[in-house]
Amino acid sequence: MTFHPECAGEEDKNQIMEITFSNNRLKKTCRSEKDAKREFGDVGGKILMRRLTQLSDVANLEQLRNQPGHWHELTGERWGQLAANLEGGNRLVIEPDHAPIPRKPDGGLDWPNTTAVIVVEIVDYH
């Protein structure tokens, strides 16, 4: 279930984030703006598609650090996952799709070396 963005430029085709989905329903919602809007409303669907485009346009997570959406690592029960803000309290939750997961010496996620992710869910976990 890999997301292959059609909007990537020719120069980026070898350096785009590999994106997979945790299930087919989520994949279907994320691959179609119409389905995303049906699920999350007009504004929520547009923002979801914007976040997925951001994700598909980068080669690694480090390139998302200062982009809109407040891409951030989660803690507690969600340690090892990352999230981006959508509309309201909804978050796009992803996790690295590497074995082993790239880590810094201090144990934190190595954002520059994370080049593949799984879209886990879209949820308001607050």
Low-confidence stretches: 1-13
Q: SS-based structural class?
A: alpha+beta
Q: Estimate the helix proportion, in percent.
A: 25-40%
- What is the CATH homologous superfamily assignment? RelE-like
Count all strands and give the number.
6
- What is the C-level CATH assignment? Alpha Beta
Determine the CATH topology. Answer: YaeB-like fold
How many domains? The number is 1
Overall form: globular
Radius of gyration: 14 Å
The major sheet is characterized as:
6 strands, mixed
Q: Distance between termini?
A: 28 Å
The largest beta-sheet arranges its strands as 1-2-6-5-4-3
What fraction of the residues are assigned to beta strands by DSSP? 15-25%
The secondary-structure element order is: EEHHEEEE
- Tally of individual helices: 2
Q: Just name the CATH architecture.
A: 2-Layer Sandwich
Estimate the mean pLDDT confidence.
90
Q: What does this molecule look like?
A:
- The protein has 126 residues and is of the alpha+beta class.
- The chain has one domain: 2-Layer Sandwich (YaeB-like fold), CATH 3.30.2310.
- The chain has two helices and six strands.
- A six-stranded mixed β-sheet has the order 1-2-6-5-4-3.
- β3 and β4 form a beta hairpin.
- The longest helix is centred in the middle third of the chain and has 24 residues.
- It is globular, with a radius of gyration of 14 Å.
- The N terminus is likely disordered.
Break the fold down into its secondary structure elements and pairings.
Layout: E1 2-3, E2 18-21, H1 24-31, H2 33-56, E3 72-73, E4 82-85, E5 91-96, E6 116-123
Parallel strand pairs: 2-6
Antiparallel strand pairs: 1-2, 3-4, 4-5, 5-6
